[in-house]
Each structure stands twice: as C-alpha cells, then as structure tokens.
Amino acid sequence: MEMLLSTKGITICLFFFVLSLAAAIEIPLSVAQLPIITEQSHTQVAYPFDEDFTIKCEARGNPQPTFNWTKDGKPFDLLSDPRIVASNNSGTFVIQNRGIITSFQGKYRCFASNVLGTAMSEEIELIVPSVPKFPKEKIEPLDVEHGDSVILHCNPPKGIPPLHIYWMNIDLQHIPQDERVSMSLKGDLYFANVEENDSRSDYCCFAAFPRLRTIVQKMPMTLKVSRFKHANDSGSPNAAVTKANFIKERKPKLLIPPESAGSSSSVTVIKGGVLLLECIAEGLPTPHLSWVKVTGNLPKDEPETENFGKILKIDQVTAADEGTYQCTASNPMGRAKHEFHVHVEEPPRWIKEPEGGVYSVGTNLVLLCEAIGNPEPTIQWKLNGMPIDSRTFRGRISAREISLTNLQLHDSAVYQCEASNKHGTILASANVNVLNIAPLILTSDGENYATVVGYSAFLHCEIFASPAADIRWTKDDSIEPLSALRYELNKNGTLEIKETKKEDSGSYACWAANSVGKRAITANLDIRDATKLVVTPKNPRVLKSHSILLKCQSEYDSHLKHSFKLSWRKDGDELPFNSTEYGRVILDRDTLFISSVTLEDQGVYTCVASTSLDSVTATSQLVVLDVPDPPEDLQLSENQNRSVRLSWKAGASHNSPVNESIIEFEENRWEPGRWQELTRAPGNDTTALLSLAPYMNYQFRVTSVNAVGRSQPSKPSLRYATPPAAPDKNPENIRVEASEPNEMVMKWEPLKPAERNGPGLEYKVSWRQRGVEADWNEEMVKKHSLTLRNTPTFVPYEIKVQAVNNLGSGPEPNVTIGYSGEDVPDAAPSGVSVDVVNSTLVKVFWFGIPRDRVRGHLRGYKVSWWKTKSMLDGKRHHPEKHFLTFVGDRNYGMIPGLEPFSEFRLTVLAYNAKGDGPESSPVVFETPEGVPEQPRFLRILNFDKDSVTLSWGLPKRANGHLTGYILQYQIINETHEIGPLNDISVANRSTLSWRLSGLSSSTKYKFYVKACTVKGCGKPVTEEGLTMAQGTYAGIYDGISTQGWFIGLMCAIALLTLLLLTVCFVRRNKGGKYSVKEKEDLHPDPEAQSIKDEIFGEYSDSDEKPLKGSLQSINGDIKATESADSLVDYGEGEHGMFNEDGSFIGAYSGSKEKGSVESTGSSTATFPLHA
C-alpha cells in the first residue's frame, strides 16, 4: 500500500493495496482447485452389539473429487462386499453387521482425486474384536504345604482394553489381598507363603471388558494347604507346625520379574503415559517391598505405589523420569533386588508442517516438514498420495524441504508429508493451487450498511484473485480514492471508517484489479444518530425500608425505534422484566422501582439500551443506608475500684460511618433490669474507660449511632462489682416548703441509688435559728424530709443535711437558709391615691406595708375597684368588684378598661403565700367624659329624585353629654375609585333625622352617622343605597322591598352571604388566614382606635396602613393620649394579664355592668376614605 502522509491538505492514499491471498480467504468453490479432506474417521471399534459401522471420508474440490480406498496398503473396492453401503459424491461407507465381520478388520486410507491432484487421509484402523471367553479346561487341585509359595494363573482372554480382573469366590466375595496375597498386573494371584486358611475350592478369576459390556469367569480352582507331612511324633500339632515353619523359612525370591530375567531389565514407556513397574516376591516371613531411583534425576514428588507397595506408578511420564529404578524385597532371612532401566520414548509430533496456499504463475514454492520423536521419525514426501520419485520430480526434495521455481498451472498438486517411528505415524497435507484468474468479488453488489454517529463503519469487499489484486475505494461520483486518517483498508478488502459523521452517508464503490482483469461493486452507507442514555437519580443513597425509583431516560434515532430495547442489570446480571420478590422490585421498561429497600438491593444498576446498530449503558450505584449492626465481643480490662475499661468490636456501619457509641449500664442491686446511659465514645472508638460508682454490680452494653439512627444494643458484658465506700456527696435542693405558721418542713432531694456508695444510708439533719448564738440541733433520718413544730412565725434558720452510710459520712455539707411557716399580712397599704389618665385609664399609688408586717414572703399587691354611679344620669349602681394583681414589691399600678364619666371606689391590699392582708380605706375617683359609641341604627326613610331622608338612633352609651352628630356621604359605584366625602354637622343633639338634597340619580351612595361629645366623635353607623334614573331611590327599608325581583335578589345575596360565612368559618378552623386586615385598613374603627390610644399610649398597634392616600380621623381634633407608663404598670386580673406586646388578655372578675366599655360597632361600620 502506498501512503502519502501530510498534516494539512495532504492526504493518505489507500490504493495499490496488495492482499496476501495465500493466508487470507478460502478459494471459492467456483474456482478450480485441488481436493482437500474435510472430515474423516479415526480408530474405530466394531462392537458386536452395533448394527453397523460408519467409516467417514469427506472432501471438497473443483472439479468434484472421486474417492478410492486402500486396506492394509492394498486397493479396497467398496463394491466387493454386499454388506458395504457406499454414499454418492462421498467417500463415506457403512459396514452392516450381518454376522461375522472379522474380515473387515484392518487399516484403511481414503484418497480424494480430481484432474488437479489427489488428497489422502490419515490411516483409519477398524478393530473387530472377538467375544472373549475362557477356554473350557479341567484344572487340577493344588496340594501344597504350609509356608509354600503358590501362583494361581488367570490367563485372561484377549479383548478390547481396558481389562479389569477380579479374584472372587463362588459367592462373588472378593479374595482378601495384602502383602502376602496379591494380584499381578497380568491378573495372576500370588501367595508369598500359604497358610491353612488359604485352603478353598472356589478361587475364581473374573475378566471384565467394559467397552464390550462383557464379564467372563474362569473355572474355579482348588487350593489345599496341609501341615508338614513328616511330623509323625506324638507331640502337639502346634509343635509340628512350628517345626515346619522353621524348616520352610527362607529369604525373599522375586517371582516378578522372574529370576530368569536376571538382576536387571529394560522398560520402555511412552512420554505422557503411565509408568508401571512391578515386583512380587515370595518368602517366609512375608517379604516387604521398597523402591528407590538409582540413577537420573529424582522425581519432584515421592513416587506413588500400589498393590501394597508392589507396583511403582508414575503418571504423565516426562523425560525426567528416565533412569534406573530398583525394587528390594526383604525379610529377616535376607533380601532380593531387581533394577529396571526405564527409557522414555515418544511418537512423532510436528515441529513444522507444510503449508499450502494459492500461488500465481511464475512464483516460487518452498514447503517445509519437520518432526521430532524417540526414536527419531523418518520423513517421507508424497505427491497426490504417491511417493515422489526424485528422478522425475522437477523440483528439489530433501527430508525436510521441497522447493519449486517458476510455478506453472500444471504444478497444482497435493503434497503429503508423513513422519513415522515405531510408536506411530502422523500425516500433514499441503494443497498447492497455481491459479491465474481475474479478481472475484465475493461480497454482493449494492449492499446497504448503517451505523451510528461516532461508531466505526465497515464496508465489506471480499476479494479472491491470483495474482493478488489492488483494491481502492471511492465515494459518490468521485474517482479519487478515499484518503484521510479516518479511512483504513483492512487486509480482507474491508473499508473501515472510524468515528463516523453524518456527512459520511452516501454511496461507495470498491475497485479490484490485477494483471488478468478488474471488477467493482457499490455499497450504500447510512449514518444514524447515536443512542443516548442517562439514569436518574445518579448514585442515590437510600435509607433501608424506603423506596427508590430509577428512571432510564433515552434518546435514539427514529429509524431504529423498531429495534430499540431496554433492559436492566444489577451487578452485571440481567433483571427480568416482571415483578420480583412478590412485587417488591418492579421493572417497567424505563423504570426500576424498589420498595422496602434491603441491604441486598445495594449494587450497581445498569440500564442497557440496544438497537440494531449500537448498544449503550448508563449506571447508577445504589447505596443503602441503615443503622449499624450491634457491637460484638464486649471485654472488660484494667479493673479498678471505681473504673474499668470496656472494649468491643464495631458492627457493620452500612454505608454511614459511626458517629458515636452509647455505653449503658444495668445494675441489679438497686434497679435491676433498668438500663441507663453511662457515657458516650466518639467516632469509631471501640474502647472507653468507664468511671464507676461504689457498691454497684454492673453489666454494660453498647449501642452504635450513625446518621441513620441507633443500632440494636449489643449483648451485655460480664458483670463487674465495685466495693462499697463512704458517700461522695450530700443531698441537694434543700428547701423549706409552705407549712403552718408555727411549723417548718425541711425537704431535700434524696441521693440516687448510684450515689449511695454503700449500705445503711441515712441523712444527718442539722439546724439552728439564724442570728442566735446556739448549738446545732441534729437528727438522723432515713427519709428525705423532717418536720419541726412550735417554731416562731417566719424566722430564718440555718440548715445542713449530710449523707451517712455504714462506711462513713459524706463531705461537710453547705449551709442553706430557710424560713419557718408564714401567716397572712396584718397591715394594709397606706397613702392610696388615684391619678386619672383618661376616660378609661387611671394610675394608682400607695405606700407598701413594713416588712415585719408581711409575716412571710411578699408576693405583691391587689387593687380592687367598683363603680358607684354614672355622672351622666346620677344613678347609683350595685357595687360589682373588679381587681388586678401587681406582683412584687411595688407602689403603683395602671387600672384600664374603666367606664367614662363614672364614679368609682378603690382599695389596695398586700398578700403573701398564706393569703391576703387587710384592705386599705376606699378612695373615690371620677372618670371624665369619653367619645360616644356608634348610633344604634341608620335607616333611609324616603327619597325623591335628588334627595333622601336619613333617620338614626341614639348611641348605646353616650359616655358623656352629646353635643350633636356628624353626617357624611360619598359615591361608591362598582369601581375601585370612590367619590369625595361630604360632611354635614348636626349641632342639635336632639335631632335624629336629616334630609339630604343635591344627589345624583342612578348613583350608589354610602352614608355615615356618628355621635359626638366634647371629647370627640365615636364610631359611625353606615348604610348604602342606589338612586334611580326616574328619581326613585333603592333603599333597604322602603317600598321596593315588596317587589318580587328585589325579594329574589335579597334571597340570592343571603345565600351567597351564608356560603361566604361557611367558607370563612372552615378556613378559620383550619388555621387559615381571613383577609380582614385590608378591610380594616380601608375602614378603621375610630372608637377602637381612640380607646387603644387612651389605654396603651405608645404601645398602640403600628401595623395600620392606608390603602390609598392617608387615613384621616373624622374629627381631626381627637389625638392619642400619650403615656410614659411601662407595661409592668398593669396588674394581673383574675383570669389574665397584659402580654409583653401590650395586648390585654383575660377578663375582669365579675360580669360587666351596663355601661362598661365594649365594642358595639357593626361589621359595616367603616371610616370613609377620602379620594
């Protein structure tokens, strides 16, 4: 291939690419070629139970080859026997089993020939075994003496190996074998010396041939063992036997190998096979066999012995196993030896086989053939199955090489190389095809290819040509060969386009040419969009028992939608697309849902998207978080009286590191079964030094904590008891609780069980009156309180409490000051005065009572007041008391919520924990006038074209002398804009109606009426109405109310109002917000505002904001009364007090009398908004 390299503009030309066809592709069958054997049989056994036997030989070539056979080197005619069934166009034939077929046994060879040459198969050996049988014979009994050596011969019949020989009795029980009695490799049974119990008449030899499914039995043999025949004295039989044994004792003698073989013998074994060396000896006592390697390298492992040490076995023999091995048979009488000279040989094997191929006319040929073996194999060359005659062969021939120059078409032939030694023969064939043909393009013309962007595209152009062809590729209408680094031409003619782009789509042409001719094909390439994947969420961390949903989002080319597939894998294993584990894991195409996640669900989940052109994956690693496993293996060490070291092994953290370990204890002396926290160990610490209390019998457990939660507690440790000791601390929280005036109850917190430190816990209580020189009074108690009687009222005492047990006392206790019992105060506050702040608020002053008259701890003061009469009408009122409580030692307070323009009486008393003291003398004060409440009603009585008459009622409470009324009105058509506010002052306080004139027709108005005193005007009452074009006016209380359409309209409005109220009620009960604030901002309550200003001064609500413009008081001269009083000036009532934000909560004691301050304004009462 010529390649022109450059960086910019210079291309790489991919033409004149030469294919090495000899090693590339097979010769197409359409091209004339030599035969080649494609299939053949090997060594085959014709079992008698098979119906037929097939000898295979298949070959291909052009022209179609014909077949011939040889048997044992001689021509074999398949038609010579009717039991042979031949196949057409094949060398395979079948031998039918019709009785005796031993004549077919032999070595066969198949030859496949056509006009170009002949191919030859390896030898095929057909073995026709005979049915093995033992000959019928009469076997004479063997009569031997005790101690003699005996051999029972088996002489098994010949058959197909493997052969298994067994010695059994007539009941098919194995003859026991040992060092004295054993079977040789040939199957004979050897007795090194016989005993009387060896006598029996049913020694049977069985020969088994598994491949023939046959077991044959030899006739039973009889062995008689008798005592020493010449022992005729009258002594005991045992003495005769001993004498016989003594005479028979002898040194070992080798039976295998026999003595006739001499002291040594040669053994040949095939490399890779099994070496078996056998020594069997006779003698009395029974000889013992041992083995040793005399010469050569010692084997790596100790040689394996079988048959009670009589057989040396080496598997997979190598050249290193060559050498001299010696067996030794020994007994106390002597020893016998034999040496085996082991030679390792091997059949032929190839070092270099001849390789055929396709050659063009005029080229040269060299075939090499080399094999090794032991003995060294002989090499024979054959041409078309016949030995080569070097006299007529035009090339050069040697044992390892054949060469030819200037090959011509008639030099096409099959060359065979055969290597042989005494262990076998191997055959290698080389087909030399000399061809001279124009290029053949084996790939179909007009093939369509497709790939995705970024992948490589492979356009095939399989060529066969001789001589070799030059190949080039072009695109679309261009005649220039493709040239770029992305294009690569492979040896088989395939064009690889790397990292494809959309613009690579188009039509391509493959051109092939040699000296004989040229050919071309076209191919079409489509580039599709690559498939894209993403799995969300990416690498989630999920708590155990929670759920996780993995989503596989994909994009793929629309042309590939029919082949698009999605699948899921977990840790590389595919998950089935159905519910698993009773629906806990559910796959539905692009989603994977796992409910109640377990630790086993943790892993890497892969979404695999595949189309016919590409396959992509996206992964997400699921991490399952759980509480740690419980700690294990708790151990105690470093034992001390008040400490011990606890160590443990941490359990699995389950992907969330352990933050701390909680160490708990349980003791069975005071609170058995109750576990209490002792300390905590940070992070991954697995040991802690524990501080312990005396006189406790501890056991411990540990709980690990991570971000998920706590583990289960560990198993408890062993118990650890600490010795007793004196108390380390005294009781705490020593106090004197409320009691009778002449009594004092001292109490304290008892020591906890872990603080007792030992048995016999008591408390030593010491006390004395403070400021009086006297000795300490002492008393020992077991409970945690002590009552003293006949003490002075409210006198300070010094008190000490000390813990004591059987081992000693606790530390010196601290002194606590406590007071004896209290009594109610016996004096009333003096100098009570009242400062009126405004019409509803006063400030009270007094002088506190002396400390010694409190007779206890002063809790505070109570101010009581009641209304005596109204200043407006002079009527007297039944006194109904109210009170406020002022906590602490103070001398003033604020009294809010009073009725304006009224007379009151007021008293002050002091109180302590025991109760209230006497009241002060009543003080009389009067509240000034205030603004009136809103009029009771406002009605539209009648109207004409441009006027209307209004009527209203008196205010519910005037709170002073009325000075008149303010009448206001403005246009409020159904728009966001409202008209200007018009004011009319009614100076006559007796006037309760007014006629307005100058109104516009067909216009909606809103009317306001409010009552006034010298202090200002109160909250207005409102009404709305609509004037009509004809001069009629839509009032709420006049004639139109009887018309049908108006009644229907009112019903609809009532229904809507009910629905709105229901919704508001539901929202309020749900904690929702009801938007009243805006309405209050639009129409604020002037009376409520004035009251708030009067009572709270600078603590009034500052959140009011105007909607449009600024809010303006109806009566501009009303201003908030400023007050510098603090919130603490207001006392506590019976049911409540003032909050810190200045709001008053709770109610006064008793019911409010008529005329008290309360909100009476309707929901429609609003401030007018000036446009």
Note the topology.
Layout lengths: L16 E2 L14 E8 L3 E2 L6 E4 L1 E6 L3 E6 L2 E3 L7 E3 L6 E4 L9 E9 L2 E4 L3 E4 L14 E4 L4 E3 L11 E5 L12 E3 L5 E3 L8 E10 L4 E4 L3 E6 L10 H12 L1 E7 L7 E7 L4 E4 L1 E5 L3 E6 L10 E3 L4 E4 L8 E9 L2 E19 L4 E4 L4 E4 L1 E5 L3 E6 L2 E2 L8 E2 L3 E4 L8 E9 L2 E12 L1 E5 L5 E6 L4 E3 L3 E4 L3 E6 L11 E3 L5 E3 L8 E8 L4 E11 L3 E5 L4 E3 L4 E8 L9 E6 L2 E3 L9 E4 L2 E4 L8 E8 L4 E11 L6 E6 L5 E7 L8 E10 L8 E7 L4 E5 L5 E10 L13 E2 L10 E6 L5 E7 L12 E8 L7 E5 L3 E5 L6 E10 L2 E2 L6 E4 L10 E7 L5 E6 L10 E13 L11 E6 L4 E4 L6 E11 L2 E2 L6 E4 ...
Parallel strand pairs: 3-12, 13-20, 22-29, 30-38, 40-47, 49-56
Antiparallel strand pairs: 1-43, 2-5, 4-9, 6-7, 6-10, 8-9, 10-11, 10-12, 14-17, 15-18, 16-17, 18-19, 18-20, 21-24, 23-27, 25-28, 26-27, 28-29, 29-32, 31-36, 33-34, 33-37, 35-36, 37-38, 39-42, 41-45, 43-46, 44-45, 46-47, 48-50, 50-54, 51-52, 51-55, 53-54, 55-56, 57-58, 58-61, 59-60, 59-62, 62-63, ...
